[in-house]
Amino acid sequence: MITTKGRYAIRVLLDIAKHDEGAYIPLKDIAARQNISKKYLEIVVKDMVTANLLQGISGRGGGYKLCRKPEDYCLGEVIEIMDGPLAPVSCLVANQEPCPRADECETLPLWVEYDKLTHDYFYNKYLSDLIKK
Amino acid sequence: MITTKGRYAIRVLLDIAKHDEGAYIPLKDIAARQNISKKYLEIVVKDMVTANLLQGISGRGGGYKLCRKPEDYCLGEVIEIMDGPLAPVSCLVANQEPCPRADECETLPLWVEYDKLTHDYFYNKYLSDLIKK
DNA sequence: CTATCAACCTACTATGTCAATAGGTAAATA
DNA sequence: TATTTACCTATTGACATAGTAGGTTGATAG
Question: What's the CATH number where B11 sits?
Answer without folding.
Answer: 1.10.10.10
